[in-house]
Specification:
By secondary structure, the protein is of the alpha/beta class. It is 44% helix and 13% strand. The longest helix has 15 residues. This is DNA binding HTH domain-containing protein.
């Protein structure tokens, strides 16, 4: 029997300390989406029972290795669910393994709500969210993944290094040093 998803299938949020999807979940709920929270230990049974359109998981909680196993088990029991992961900048090296486990979209902490909503709209329309459509990290080194993450954070922050640094949970001076080491054009160190 082929599993079909209702156009109103819920969004399943796997609970974790300081859940990075909480703000998005509140906004989705306010927009009329059905949002269900489940404890980590009940994730597989909840995904099986609910057949959610999206299952949101924090890659770092409790650890990337445990979460990767959870993603694979969720996809085994609810193959049609789209797994969105949220990763801390320091866990970027685990994102390719998450794609192999079945994740369909990733966000760095904190996930920008506009990207979350765009990915959900893609899923609701039946199209693929774009982050993993071509597995952008396949064949990349950790250094290349790091540079991609930094550049994406700066782009999301509209060029503001301090804002990008906050999003990546590092200091602005760390980003300035990285940019300098990569030969990127110097950016103003004035407050933005």
């Amino acid at each position: 029997m082929t599993e079909t998803l209702s156009p109103t299938a819920p969004i399943l949020i796997i609970e974790s300390p300081n859940n990075p999807f909480s703000e998005g979940a509140r906004s989705w709920h306010a927009q009329g989406e059905m949002v269900v929270f489940a404890p980590f230990e009940d994730a597989v049974s909840s995904a099986t029972e609910l057949s959610p359109i999206v299952t949101c998981v924090d890659l770092s909680s409790p650890s990337p290795e445990v979460t990767l196993d959870l993603i694979a088990r969720v996809k085994t029991h609810a193959p049609r669910t789209n797994v969105f992961i949220c990763a801390h900048f320091l866990d970027a090296e685990h994102i390719p393994a998450a794609t192999n486990a079945g994740a369909s979209e990733y966000f760095f902490i904190p996930p920008p709500f506009d990207r979350l909503s765009k990915a959900l709209r893609c899923v609701r329309r039946g199209s693929e969210p774009n982050s993993f459509a071509a597995n952008p990290f396949k064949g990349m080194t950790l250094a290349q993944i790091e540079r991609t993450a930094v550049q994406a954070a700066i782009e999301d922050a509209r060029g503001s290094i301090p804002k990008a640094a906050r999003a990546l949970n590092v200091s602005p001076s760390t980003l300035y040093r990285k940019l300098e080491s990569w030969g990127e054009p110097p950016r103003s160190r004035k407050r933005q």
